[in-house]
Description:
Keywords: Signal. Residues 1-19 form the signal peptide. Helix content is 15%, strand content 31%. The protein contains 4 helices and 14 strands. The model is unreliable at 11-19 and 39-59 (pLDDT under 50).
Amino acid sequence: MYSLWLAFVALLCVAGARSAPQSNAERLARGLTPLRPQFRSIKPGLPPSPALAAKRNFPSNTPIQTFYSGRIEVRSSSGAVLGYVKNQPLSTPIDGINLGPSDQELHVQFTVPQSTGVLTVVEPFPILASNPKFLSPYYIGIAFGQSVVPLVPGVANSLIFTNVYQTPTGPPQQTARGPSESNIWTINRSTKQLIPRYINPDGSKPNTEIAYDPPNNRIFFVESVSTWKNVHPGTLTHAVSFFLADIPS
């Protein structure tokens, strides 16, 4: 009888040992498959597990970017839509409004750092043409004629709006097509307005306005459209704004 009791106790011990949790190392040593991972949710009022807390606090060296794409809508100072920046295989491919079919509208794309609570991206970035009908370069920005000129209050200097090579943020850089600037754009995340920020040769940052000359269908940059009109009496040039707009499907 006593021997039967000992056998029963031994059987219970073996059963208990088999039901005890084993580590993956122990299971692999016995030729078994590893245990499935267990996912634990955080209950209100309780701290997360050390592993989950470490995952949450793990730093990332890769900045989060927001991708934008669309076409550039041109609006008057009253908010009226005048059209969209053109895209034509000409020597001046983009410096005007498209007056033809929609396939001659410029499509663009760019990325900016993602930031919560900040409406306007103030660090200039480049904008790339995504459907160019013209030859390289494919960024859109500021170029110059005979010489690099600054934008100065009270002076009616103008800068060319055209396709340019990508350049670092800063004063005009010499490229294969002459001096230019590509990193001149900022954006208001709420309204999607694209705002130019030209940097003078001396590093100063003047006011930069977009001007439109309807008779010649020409877009260019000036320090002040009002100053430009005073120096060029009778001109129909007026101030316009750029906005990123959706591409119709």
